[in-house]
Amino acid sequence: MIKDPWEDLLKGLKAFIDRRLTCSTEDLVTIINYSSDAEVQCRGVSILDEPHTKTSFRGGNTNFAAGLQCIETEMEKIENGYEPVLVFMSDGGCKNGDVEMERIAKDFAKKNI
Question: Is the pTM of this model over 0.85?
Answer without folding.
Answer: yes
